[in-house]
Amino acid sequence: MPRERPLRLPIFPLKSIQSSISFAFSCVILAAILSISLISYQLSVGAVEKNSQGYIEEIIKQVNTNIQSYVDNMENISLLAMTSKDVKYYISDNSFISPEERRPYEKRISDLFQAILYTRQDIANLMVFGYNGRFVSDRRITDLNPNADIAQQAWYKDAKAAGGRSVISAPHIQNIIQNEYRWVVSLSRELKSTDGITAEGVFLVDLNLSVINDLASNINLGKRGYVFIVDRKGNIVYHPQQQLINSNLTAELIPEVTAAKSGSSFIADDDKGKRIYSIQDTSFGWKIVGVAYTDDLIASKGTIRNSILLYALCGLGISLLISFWLSYRLSRPIRNLQADMKLVERGNFGIQTEIGQMNEIGQLGRTFNMMVGRIKTLMDEIIQNQESKRKSELQLLQAQINPHFLYNTLDSIVWMAEQKQHEEVVLMTSALAKLFRASITKDQEIVPIRVEAEHIANYLLIQKMRYESQLDYEIDIADDIMRNKTLKILLQPFVENAIYHGIRGSADKGLIAIRGMRVGDNVVFEVEDNGQGMTPEQLQRLLLPEDGEDRKGIGIRNVDERIKLYFGREYGVHIRSEREVGTCVTITIPIL
């Protein structure tokens, strides 16, 4: 029956929907205004962000230059030690006759180091450690920490591995001097002999972090921007929030920074806000990173947005005033037809849409009503045909007997007859006859559970006599469900699958346990074996039809569909399996 709607008087007659579409171009103008406004805003903001990114890169390059110059000055100090004749002689293989002969060298080297420290307040220590066991520092009396092994210090090992090149360490606590612990960055370098080949010792410069902190902390990258430094291993050399990072109260994008190339930039957008990261590499392995918040740098972003929004609103208002009345008139019948289509999508094929004027939309509604009526008729026919076809296919599958099983069973009977095992022949033939009788009867699809239990007992008896010591089984079906009903030949496919795919290839004796019980308002069967089990991939393929399966036997998937067809989608088969442990099939049907 057509739905009843309140009577609506047409505002004015429209003979062609094409004439209405011509007025709807105002909507196209509206979309164009919004698109142009959005694109203009994105391009403007993008240009400002790109300029800001270039600005940050230039600042970080300058910071990199300053730090590089600072480290170069430290390397020049190491060159003083390398070129000092006193230092070279002191750490060479030459032997001093007495301590009095050695002290003048130590005094001159110490005076040289003290003169350097006098002009450089940022240097904490200057030391030379010879491989001959001698050492000298900027102090006249230096007591080394007996608990600190010089050879195991990271800066010492790195200097030896670098072979004469300067090595900058990560920030660390210097503990080689007794009762003195300073937070420093160490510049170390292996000293060579006059021939430039033989390594004779390691020169150490401990740098206070105050200078590096000053170089990085005085950089202005907006209100919240900052600069931090990491070494090639990702260790933080300097960060304004280093204590919070060490306490895991905040985090930094260290992996992304270490993976980035020198001179590159990337943008991070998270709960902290949108940030620009600019990276510059130093020659000695550090990465100087500048972080700036785009909201701080793009001061004109709000002005750009407001200006574009103002012009867009003006254009929007004009377009709406011109096209509102006509767009409403145009969209109303289409909305009504759309609502009816949604009802058809939900399965309501009895709907008939209201037909107004006989323009293009009216003709479309008339065609829609005819189409829905025809679809309803065809759907009813298809459902009836498919249900009948499916039942016929399942009955045919049920009636089929596996020729391979029949051949093997008869072959076993012949063998037992030749061996004069008359009782076994009678028992096996009787079980086979009962199995045939249950398979070929087609008058009833639903049978008592007692009949199904007898059928599976006969089947397992035949298989037990065939496989003898390879197979054992248990059947435990509760007496209180024996009079309830179930689908005929429900359990055999799962038992057959357990024998041929789970137990037959196993080296150990197989056990199949069949259980039946009442659980709430359902009857639950379980078919469990201790066979080889299945991998998740094999378990997934088990519920899919194999090639030729619909012609050779009753497949697991067909049994599941058969249960759902008779009892509903909430019932069916569930399989769990573990490799080398076994498989358990759970079959759930309602109580009948």
UniProtKB/TrEMBL annotation:
Top-level taxon in the UniProt lineage: Bacteria
Main location, first listed in the record: membrane
Annotated keywords: ATP-binding, Cell membrane, Kinase, Membrane, Nucleotide-binding, Phosphoprotein, Transferase, Transmembrane, Transmembrane helix, Two-component regulatory system
Catalytic reaction(s) noted: ATP + protein L-histidine = ADP + protein N-phospho-L-histidine
Domain Histidine kinase span(s) in chain numbering: 487-592
Ranges annotated as spanning the membrane: 21-43, 308-328
Residue ranges of domain HAMP in the record: 328-380
Enzyme Commission number, as recorded: 2.7.13.3
Bilayer topology term: Multi-pass membrane protein
Protein location: Cell membrane
PROSITE patterns according to UniProt: HAMP (PS50885), HIS_KIN (PS50109), PROKAR_LIPOPROTEIN (PS51257)
Cross-referenced InterPro entries: Bact_2-comp_sensor_kinase, dCache_1, HAMP_dom, HATPase_C_sf, HATPase_dom, His_kinase_dom, Sig_transdc_His_kin_internal
Listed Pfam families: dCache_1 (PF02743), HAMP (PF00672), HATPase_c (PF02518), His_kinase (PF06580)
PANTHER family: SENSOR HISTIDINE KINASE YPDA
Protein name in UniProt: histidine kinase
Taxonomic source organism: Paenibacillus glycinis
